[in-house]
Amino acid sequence: MNRQVSVVGSGSEWEGAAEEVGRLLAERGCTVITGGLGEVMAAAHRGAKAAGGTTIAILPGERRNDANPWADHVVVTGIGHARNLAVAASGDAVIAVGGAWGTLAEISLAKTLGRVVVALAGAPDVDGVETAATPAEAVDLALRLLEI
Which residues have CB under 8 Å from 70's CB, separation 6+? Predict the structure, then answer.
């Protein structure tokens, strides 16, 4: 079974890093999961699609067409922020890029579930979460930790 990695975060200033994370994950054969909306989520999907990868969007709302245009598969939850649990649980690992409170919730949920979590520079600083300085380092670290 292919690896699934959730990319979480927000902030337009982090889109370049998120796009690179998505591309690198797809190049390594991973499916990229996000919350399916804009900014970091769209950028991670855009990067994955540029590398020929597969993407999954887990939406907070009730409308499938709210997903970003790079989402291959769309899960409509209608549960608002509670969808953060599905995003965190669906990845074998989670990479955080930028972000705020929603990202912090996803990091916390992922750690509670025992998932590998890597925070790229700019993501919320959480004790016990691995950190990486570059997108390449974040992807390498997340995938290496999955092998342990």
Answer: 42, 45, 46, 48, 49, 55
pLDDT in tens for each of the 148 residues of the chain? 799 999 999 999 999 999 999 999 999 999 999 999 999 999 999 999 999 999 999 999 999 999 999 999 999 999 999 999 999 999 999 999 999 999 999 999 999 999 999 999 899 999 999 999 999 999 999 999 999 7
Q: Can you tell me whether residue 130 is helix, strand or coil?
A: strand
Query: How is residue 30 annotated by DSSP?
Result: P
pTM of this structure? 0.97
Domains (range + CATH), the chain:
12-134 (3.40.50.450)
Q: Exposed/middle/buried for 28, CB within 10 Å: 0-12, 13-18, 19+? A: middle
